[in-house]
Amino acid sequence: MKAVVIASLKFHAPAAMLRRALTVAAVGAGLLFAGHAAAQQVFAAASMKDALDDLSAAYTRETGKKPVLVYGASSTLARQIEKGAPADVFISADQDWMDYAQKHDLIDTSSRRNLLGNELVLIAPATTTGDVDLKTGADLDAKLGSGRLAMGDPAHVPAGLYGKAALEKLGVWSKVQGKVAAADNVRNALLLVARGEAPYGIVYKTDANAEKRVRIAGTFPADSHAPIIYPVAVTKQANRAEADPFFKFLQSPAAQATFQRYGFSRP
């Protein structure tokens, strides 16, 4: 059984209520399995869903043990662990939220590893044409027109933080920030573009690869933002007998090959 936090956002007052409901749902998803000590409970960045679902199925076939997967924004997951949500393994989409978990003594620091890398891209609905040259002074504001730019909330979602940094480096953030549709996690931003609710969005390359309804309209220069690194660690509260084998499995050559097939890179 898997718990997944994925939903569409609207641009009016009920959105705040939806965000609170999603947070409660994610916490509840973790607590649902609190009594199942035999299951590895993995809290992972939403952008990892497709690859990690695949790897979880492979692990279950090999071992007979089925990990419980909870997806969401790295910021939300780290705060849930801090509040006591049961997690054995935490995978963040950036270093900052793993740093947060380490600072608050939530992880076994000796287990921390850099697991994966990724790229940041601009997406548009697959039914559209034309690319955006993502260089200094890019005309993204004109491309958006009266439309919204879907991206993870730049206040705390890693993909949003990377996106804001890249747009600032290109000198266009001040022009487009008023058009941002801030999503609870990167997969919500992806859905907004896939459903045609936003003409452009900023997501990871792996997200774009996973959704046939969008296309990559541009790739942000690697030097426009900090390197996108996914660190992984075992939590302090983990059932190590169950968590350690899956933790090691994630770093195996076979698992790394699967991650790369979905578009992730080595860190």
Short description:
With 267 residues, this protein is an alpha/beta fold.
Give me some keywords for this one.
267 residues; alpha/beta; D-Maltodextrin-Binding Protein, domain 2; 2 domains; five-stranded mixed beta sheet; 10 strands; globular; metal ion binding
Write the layout of secondary structure elements.
Elements: H1 14-32, E1 41-45, H2 49-63, E2 68-72, H3 74-82, E3 89-91, H4 95-103, E4 113-117, E5 120-125, H5 140-144, E6 149-152, H6 158-169, H7 173-176, E7 180-183, H8 186-194, E8 200-204, H9 205-210, E9 214-219, E10 229-234, H10 240-250, H11 253-261
Parallel strand pairs: 1-2, 1-3, 6-7, 6-8
Antiparallel strand pairs: 3-10, 4-10, 5-8, 5-9
Helix pairs in contact: 2-11, 3-4
Subunit structure: The complex is composed of two ATP-binding proteins (ModC), two transmembrane proteins (ModB) and a solute-binding protein (ModA).
Binding site for molybdate: 47, 74, 159, 186, 204
GO cellular component, one term: outer membrane-bounded periplasmic space
Instruction: Supply the CATH architecture of the largest domain.
Output: 3-Layer(aba) Sandwich
**Roughly how many Å is the radius of gyration?**
18 Å
CATH class of the largest domain: Alpha Beta
Query: How many domains comprise the coordinates?
Result: 2
Succession of helices and strands: HEHEHEHEEHEHHEHEHEEHH
Overall pLDDT confidence: 89
Helix fraction, binned, reads: 40-55%
> Count of helices?
11
Instruction: Give start-end ranges of low-pLDDT stretches.
Output: 1-38
Q: Tell how many strands the DSSP assignment holds.
A: 10
Termini separation: 30 Å
In the sheet with the most strands, the strands line up as 2-1-3-10-4
What characteristic shape results from the CA principal axes?
Answer: globular
Major sheet details: 5 strands, mixed
The CATH homologous superfamily of the largest domain is termed Periplasmic binding protein-like II
Which range does the strand content fall in? 15-25%
Instruction: Briefly note the structural class of the backbone.
Output: alpha/beta
- CATH topology-level name of the largest domain: D-Maltodextrin-Binding Protein, domain 2
